[in-house]
Amino acid sequence: MIIKKFIKNGPLQNNNYVIIDEESREAVLIDCSEPTDDIMDYIKEQGADLKYILLTHVHPDHIQGVNYYRKKYGVSVFLHKDDFPLLSQLGQYFAGAESVSVDKLFDDDAEFSIGNEKIKVIHTPGHTEGSVCYLIDNMLFSGDTLFYETHGRTDLPFSDDAKMRSSLKKLFTLDDNIVVYPGHRKDTTIGAEKVRY
Fold first, then answer.
1. Which pTM was predicted?
2. Cα–Cα distance measured from residue 145 to residue 171, given in angstroms and rounded to the nearest whole number
3. How confident is the model at residue 91, as a pLDDT?
4. Beta strand pairing status for 26-30 and 49-54?
């Protein structure tokens, strides 16, 4: 697997990830904060075939590039069903948030793939009701659930501190050596983070 991190969206420093299966050259984009040439240039340089966009949750700083990439590549955008209510009300809670289209809502049992690589969905409500992490082999793309030395905010609309704590406990049952690629901040591991809780 090839993993390339792109840091976007000004001071919020969002992490967007292009993941490519080396054999098939199929690729997925996890979160897309804004449309930028460097992501598109990288996909082209790698000879990759972008198959779809997976969203970890629908806060505006993670999705403002969705409409652009969706149209440019003709790909589907996937979102956990429990975040759809927030998606339809973004303008109420976040000034200037653009309307974003998704193609398919999935549930906790969803599974995706690129080439022969399986992408497992782990539902981790707390930051939002439909927050998810994506597990690929020993790599966890954690969105705004788990960060280096902290976790996602729970003081926002549709967030819940008790659910966040439960979601973190779920993640901490994973292998300590799993590398965590969060939606903000630097990479970490499950083992390094669970000792803090």
1. 0.96
2. 10
3. 83
4. parallel
